[in-house]
């Protein structure tokens, strides 16, 4: 093959593959900063101590605030939206609104011997 | 060596790096953690224990538990219970002790989990006293409480029963002597019944 044509094809192949790699890296790296799993793990652990359920089912946002800040680092903030999935209405909103994107969610089927599901959409992060 | 072949080899390596980056990030996003499962299962078991303690019968407990699991599986994309079995669903009430115990074994995708919820109230001492102004007689009952994670956060009395925390897991109940049973509820909503006045 002609030397010039060969090198041109090589440059073209490398350019395309490098562009693809950069594109993938740019789409992946910013998202990994949102710590989806951390939020889900913290929410799961919170549920095991029952205080958050008691606060949610009594619509006590002040109590939610105290429970959250006693669990997470003082350098972090949180955002919690409680939704009634059957009526599709928002029941409670607490925390820092700057963290209101990329929420993880867990639905609990009921509390106090009832079947009254609540979806907890939650995120913890640096956003105060 | 031909430049095109070298470039193709290098692009293949870059492609592998890009795919593994994408795959790893995908996994990181959509792993449903064990903690989330445990949180939901503990909530379901507590809810069922509350139902058991309030209805006073274990007839419909399994149906209630099943309904809880169905709702949880419907709304949580990563939550799946393969099998479950109720190990213990006990209600016991006497003048000395009151117990609610709900133990369920769940088989999950990651292994087996045993969720236990109980509340035990034990009477230490009962004394009577008379209000000198009204002449009414009251019981002063000293109790201790235990749950699966130590001491309950709070206990309230249902009806004309007053509860106060003394010290070191010693709780004091005050109620009129006319009462035959004392109903107590912990902060999770689990109720226990103490029989007083002899049985």
What order do the helices and strands come in, and which of them pair?
The complex is a heterodimer of chains A (128) and B (199).
Chain A: H1 3-32, H2 36-47, H3 51-57, H4 61-71, E1 77-84, E2 89-95, E3 104-108, E4 118-125
Antiparallel strand pairs in A: 1-2, 1-4, 3-4
Chain B: H1 3-30, H2 34-55, H3 61-75, E1 81-93, E2 97-108, E3 111-130, E4 137-147, E5 155-158, E6 162-167, E7 170-176, E8 181-186, E9 191-195
Antiparallel strand pairs in B: 1-2, 2-3, 3-4, 4-7, 5-8, 6-7, 8-9
Can you put this structure into words, describing what you see?
The complex is a heterodimer of chains A (128) and B (199). Chain A has 128 residues and is α+β, with helices and mostly antiparallel strands. In chain A, a hairpin with a 4-residue loop joins strand 1 and strand 2 (89-95). Chain A is elongated and about 80 Å long. The longest helix of chain A has 30 residues, at 3-32. Chain A contains four helices and four strands; from the N terminus they run ααααββββ. In chain A, strands 2-1-4-3 form a four-stranded antiparallel beta sheet, covered by helices on one side. In chain A, helix 3 packs antiparallel against helix 4. With 199 residues, chain B is of the alpha+beta class. Chain B has one domain. Chain B has helices at 3-30, 34-55, 61-75; strands at residues 81-93, 97-108, 111-130, 137-147, 155-158, 162-167, 170-176, 181-186, 191-195. Chain B has a six-stranded antiparallel beta sheet. In chain B, strand 3 and strand 4 (137-147) form a beta hairpin. Chain B is elongated and about 110 Å long. The model of chain B has no long low-confidence stretch (mean pLDDT 90). Chains A and B meet through helix 1, helix 2, helix 3 and strand 3 of A and helix 1, helix 2 and helix 3 of B.
């Amino acid at each position: 093959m002609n030397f010039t044509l060969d090198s041109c094809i090589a440059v073209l192949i490398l350019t395309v593959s490098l562009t693809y790699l950069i594109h993938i890296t740019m789409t992946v790296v910013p998202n990994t900063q949102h710590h989806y799993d951390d939020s889900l793990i913290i929410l799961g652990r919170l549920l095991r101590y029952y205080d958050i359920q008691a606060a949610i089912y009594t619509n006590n946002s002040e109590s939610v605030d105290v429970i959250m800040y006693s669990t997470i680092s003082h350098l972090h903030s949180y955002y919690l939206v409680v939704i009634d999935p059957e009526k599709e209405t928002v029941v409670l909103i607490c925390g820092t609104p700057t963290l209101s994107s990329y929420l993880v969610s867990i639905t609990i089927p009921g509390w106090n011997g009832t079947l009254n599901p609540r979806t907890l959409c939650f995120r913890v992060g640096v956003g105060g | 060596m031909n430049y095109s072949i070298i470039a193709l080899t290098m692009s293949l390596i870059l492609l592998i790096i890009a795919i593994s980056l994408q795959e790893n990030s995908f996994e990181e996003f959509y792993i449903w953690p064990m903690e989330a499962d445990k949180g939901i299962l503990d909530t379901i078991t507590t809810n069922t224990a509350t139902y058991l303690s309030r209805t006073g019968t274990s007839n419909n407990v399994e149906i209630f538990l099943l309904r809880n699991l169905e709702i949880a599986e419907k709304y949580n994309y990563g939550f799946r219970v393969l099998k479950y079995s109720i190990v213990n669903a006990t209600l016991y009430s006497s003048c000395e002790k009151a117990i609610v115990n709900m133990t369920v074994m769940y088989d999950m995708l990651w292994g087996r989990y045993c969720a236990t919820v109980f509340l035990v109230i034990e009477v230490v001492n009962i004394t009577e006293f008379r209000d000198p102004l009204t002449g009414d007689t009251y019981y002063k009952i000293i109790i201790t409480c235990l749950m699966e994670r130590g001491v309950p956060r709070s206990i309230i009395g249902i009806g004309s029963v007053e509860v106060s925390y003394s010290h070191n897991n010693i709780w004091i109940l005050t109620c009129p002597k006319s009462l035959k049973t004392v109903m107590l509820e912990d902060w999770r909503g689990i109720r226990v019944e103490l029989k007083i006045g002899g049985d």
